[in-house]
Amino acid sequence: MRAWQVQRLGEPEEALALSDVDIPEPQDGQVLVKVKAVALNFPDVLMCRGQYQIRPQLPFTPGVELCGELVGSPGSTDRVIGSPVLPAGALAEYTLMNEAEILPAPPSLDDAEASSFLIAYQTGWFGLHRRARLQAGETLLVHAAAGGVGSAAVQLGKAAGARVIAVVGGPEKAEVARALGADVVIDRRAQDFVATVKEVTKNRGADVIYDPVGGDAYTGSTKCVAFEGRILVIGFAGGSIPAPMLSHALIKNYSIVGLHWGLYRQYDPQSIVDAHHDLMRLNLKPLVGGRFPLEQAAEGLTRLAKGDSVGRLVVEL
Known about the structure:
The protein is of the alpha/beta class and 317 residues long. It folds into two domains: 2-117 and 286-316, Medium-chain alcohol dehydrogenases, catalytic domain (Quinone Oxidoreductase, Chain A, domain 1); 120-258, Rossmann fold. 32% of the residues lie in helices and 25% in strands. The chain has twelve helices and 15 strands. Strand 4 (66-70) and strand 5 (79-82) form a beta hairpin. Helix 4 (118-131) packs across helix 5 and helix 4 packs across helix 11. The longest helix is centred in the middle third of the chain and has 14 residues, at 118-131.
């Protein structure tokens, strides 16, 4: 079968090679899956660079989120979504999944949309509801609101009855955020997002801040978070990991709340299944901003790494 493999660490275009490899053999508790679509995620970029917390031995196949069909079992035409078992990642014609972690694909979504349903919406669901306890009527600020993770958070915030402020970079992304339903859209390239948040909240600030960016986005967030607000640390796509001054959190009475969604697989796997069914009832539609054939997967990851994409980038097989 064909599979992209990281043969040396570096940026995706220099680290990856499309190779012919053997179809992986399932072990106990695993199933073989024919890959239909792969949603690209920033951890795929970080694994190419050797900067992710999971560092498979070279060579390995990246791709942490997919939609596919089960092979060689009753009901094999049923579509499933989930994460593969590394190092046999999803950027290949076949991959392995743990049987216990397989989830049904939402029937209303095509393969590319279904492949994008798991990580972004689960992260948003656990972040907003389980970690930040977002309430109807509160103000939610979402950074990188036109990106894959941010666009899901905007949709979930609206579904929860929150007032959503979306921060984006550029007029094209501003239009995307408006189409997603954001109540206020801030182009950080043209506006000071801290001053604008204070203005539109009458100096109260945002109750919950959803930050997958880090760096300056986090620093600014501490200046416009409300009394007893919650800053959700989702990731560091901006490349800079903040070192927060805890004295500031003490003085201003806000919480810094971390979220590593993958840990729920270890500590509370049933909660992931429950959240999946709750999310499917919301009739959500992932924002797919680019579709690539398997041969152009490295190009898709390069575009994702540059941060100029809108919504989810997906490789279709």
